[in-house]
């Protein structure tokens, strides 16, 4: 899997990938069984922040 940041309905930021086990259905990953997930998200956040974006809320 990977994280993707979308701007104006278009993918603009893409993180590095991290492994997740294949299961039926979609289950949100957790660091315990998706090693690298937290680092991948932190990397993406750094790139976005370096472009001048700021977090103003959470959904």
Report the sheet with the most strands, covering strand number, pairing sense and barrel closure.
2 strands, antiparallel
| N→C terminal distance | 21 Å
How would you sum up the global shape?
Answer: globular
Total individual domains: 1
How would you characterize this protein structure?
- With 59 residues, the protein is α+β, with helices and mostly antiparallel strands.
- It has one domain (1-20, 29-59).
- It contains 1 helix and 2 strands; from the N terminus they run ββα.
- A two-stranded antiparallel ribbon has the order 1-2.
- β1 and β2 form a beta hairpin.
- The longest helix has 14 residues, at 37-50.
Question: How are the SSEs placed, and which strands pair?
Answer:
Elements: E1 4-7, E2 10-14, H1 37-50
Antiparallel strand pairs: 1-2
Can I get a quick summary?
The chain is of the alpha+beta class. The chain has one helix and two strands.
Main attributes?
alpha+beta; 1 helix; 24% helix; 59 residues
């Amino acid at each position: 899997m990977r994280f993707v940041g979308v701007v104006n309905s278009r993918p603009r930021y893409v993180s590095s990938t991290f492994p997740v086990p294949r299961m039926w259905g979609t289950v949100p990953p957790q660091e315990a069984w998706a090693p690298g997930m937290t680092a991948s998200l932190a990397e993406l956040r750094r790139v976005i922040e370096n472009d001048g974006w700021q977090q103003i809320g959470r959904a």
